[in-house]
Amino acid sequence: MNFLRRRLSDSSFVANLPNGYMMDLQRPDNSTSSPVSPAMERKHPQPPQPSHSSSTGTSIFSSISSAMKQTTQAAAGLIDHSTSPTPPVAQKPKILLVIDDAHTDWAKYFQGKKVNGEFDIRVEQAEFSELNLAAYVTGGCMVDMQVMRNGTKVVRSFKPDFVLIRQHAYSMALGEDFRGLIIGLQYGGIHTVNSLYSIYNFCSKPWVFSQLIKIFNSLGPEKFPLVEQTFFPSHKQMLTTPNFPVVVKLGHAHAGMGKVKVENQHDFRDMASIVAMAKTYATTEPFIDSKYDIRIQKIGSNYKAYMRTSISGNWKANTGSAMLEQIAMTERYRLWADACAEMFGGLDICAVKAVHSKDGKDYIIEVMDSSMPLIGEHVEEDRQLIADLVVSKMTQLVITAGSTPSPLRPWPPQVQPVSMKSQTGPQLGPLSQPRPPPQGGPRQPQASQPPRTNAPPQQRLSPQGQQPQSPQSTSPQQQRSPGSPQQVRSATGSSPVQASKAGMFPPQQPRPPAQGRAPNQPSPTETSKQQATPHPHLNKSQSLTNTFSISDSSQRGNANEDEAKAETIRNLRKSFASLFSD
Fold first, then answer.
1. Exposed, middle or buried by CB within 10 Å (0-12, 13-18, 19+), for 184?
2. Taking a C-beta distance cutoff of 8 angstroms, is the pair 294, 354 a contact?
3. What letter would DSSP give residue 469?
4. Which among 42, 68, 104, 481 is least buried, having the fewest CB atoms inside 10 angstroms?
5. pLDDT tens, residue by residue, 260-274
């Protein structure tokens, strides 16, 4: 008992214990009885020692027994590592920015809707003039919003996940050029309806009309009747036109702005001077004496056709009083909408405008994108269709993006390849071939080494003055065992290669290992020599440490907890018996 107290109080003994076995000294497990070795049972009862020494020894024994019990149960798979089910994590809502005027409250159309069935939608609504943003390469897009709500100025900053654009991004009117915001959203990688690529292309009506010309050339005038239009990049080319009256359109404008009806050549020259002052391009179209206007709109997969007749007598049907009614959706109108919806990579929301002349002919004059105004008696239905389209696009984005895993669907665990290598052990490969000795060293005949099968790779012979390199496929237990023969030999300084100096032959070359023996294993003679002169501090403490290292293969075979406890008690008894036998 006195010897055990001295060993337990020795600092080298505590240092050689595995990590974690001395962490529970202050909390002894009273429910677990400390094992007693047979040697202590044979001895007579000792007189009571001081309370401080007995409590210290009892606490150490209890901590060792508790640690061994936990280690044994963990190795046998008896401890249930499954934790209690965690409560569901509240999902962060997806932020939807709707760019539209304040007359339409888009929040009520998205109320109760979820993205992919798990994300709520938070709607932020503002006009282009009330927005500002900053876009970053890795940080996305930060939007600043300053709006007036019931006479109160509201300022917010957020990162939108999706944007619905219901306003024109560009007009030649003063202060209505918001193409910089479109570029910023594209820079930040924000997805929108319609796409930012198409919205930026719609910032120039002649550019959009060039796409209509391609469709006209593809389908022909019968299926796609496009109005004749002439483009002038500046006023210098506006000398004359073959037919009058004509409609002159200046630059890029909306809602009937920038359109003038010219009756004769003199008015046309006057119009050219106005184009020169505006410093922009212009287009001319032959004036069509229309009976009514036709509008075919497409929202997702929903189609509607409307007819608008002017009542005020104005040649612009969208100016003044007009009568609007819904008409039947024909295959001809559907073809127009589908053909225009394919431009610029696809338009989720679009509308085609045409004029029906008094002679019974149709002329397509324009196509609009997601900023088109909603008309007719089904405005609420159209807004709901737009909301459903946006939710479906956001859901598709969440499913297909996959950049950030959802907490409900985490990434599957990946197996580390390093741990696989440590479990496989040594493998035969190109490294098993012996390296030639250093220059000037004696060569060993290869014929004296018979071929070996299923043997570990040989130890590499290193240049003079260095230690021989062991193969990297050595098992982890050989690297971690403090009492291995290689480490004891290196500690005592008996390595023949270390004793050699640069430029001199070692006094004794290492002999090749015998057949069936690994190079890293010492011979029986060397083992007996090492056991004869052990390290003074690695004698009894090392035997206790080796007892603690329980192999996985022996413990995994135990089917129940009782056998694992019995095996642990037997190992502890053997360890303490070896301690007291000395």
1. buried
2. yes
3. B
4. 42
5. 999 999 999 999 999
What is the C-alpha separation between 230 and 3, in angstroms, rounded?
110
Three-state DSSP class for residue 140: strand
User: What's the distance, CA 26 to chain centroid?
Assistant: 45
- The sheet that has 131-136: what strands, in order across it? 131-136, 140-149, 152-158
> How distant, in Å, are the alpha carbons of 251, 254, 312 from that of 320?
23, 15, 6
Angle of helix 561-581 relative to helix 540-548, nearest 10 degrees, comes to: 180
Two tokens at 14?
């505590």
Q: What is the Cα–Cα distance from 93 to 161, expressed in whole angstroms?
A: 10
CA–CA separation, 293 and 21 (whole Å): 88
Contact call for residues 422 and 475 (beta carbons, < 8 A): yes
pLDDT band at 402 (very low <50, low <70, confident <90, very high): low
pTM over cut 0.90: no
Q: Are 488 and 481 in contact (CB under 8 A)?
A: no
Size (the chain), residues: 582
CA nearest to 544, candidates 2, 3, 7, 6: 7
Which helix (DSSP H) or strand (DSSP E) does residue 376 occupy? none
Model pLDDT for residues 173-193, shown as the tens digit of each residue: 888 999 999 999 999 999 999
- Which region, left, alpha or beta, applies to residue 126 given φ > 0 means left and ψ of -120 to 50 means alpha? beta
* Torsion sign across C-alpha atoms 194, 200, 204, 210: negative
134: enclosing H helix or E strand: strand 131-136
Q: Where are the alpha helices (DSSP H) in 295-447?
A: 331-340, 379-401, 417-424
**What does the DSSP assignment read for 530-574?**
HHHS--TTSSHHHHHHHHH---HHHHHT--SHHHHHHHHHHHHHH
The identity of residue 229, as a single letter, is Q
Residues 6+ apart with CB under 8 A from 167: 99, 100, 101, 127, 128, 371
Are 194 and 370 spatial neighbours (Cβ–Cβ below 8 Å)? yes
DSSP secondary structure string for all residues of 225-280: -BPP-EEESSGGG-S--SSSSEEEEESS--TTTTEEEE-SHHHHHHHHHHHHHHTS
Give the H or E element holding residue 191: strand 191-193
Q: H/E element holding 461?
A: none
The contacts found for 204-213 with CB under 8 angstroms, 24 or more apart, are: 204/170, 204/252, 205/249, 205/252, 205/283, 205/366, 206/231, 206/281, 206/283, 208/343, 208/367, 209/283, 209/366, 211/343, 211/344, 212/340, 212/364, 212/367
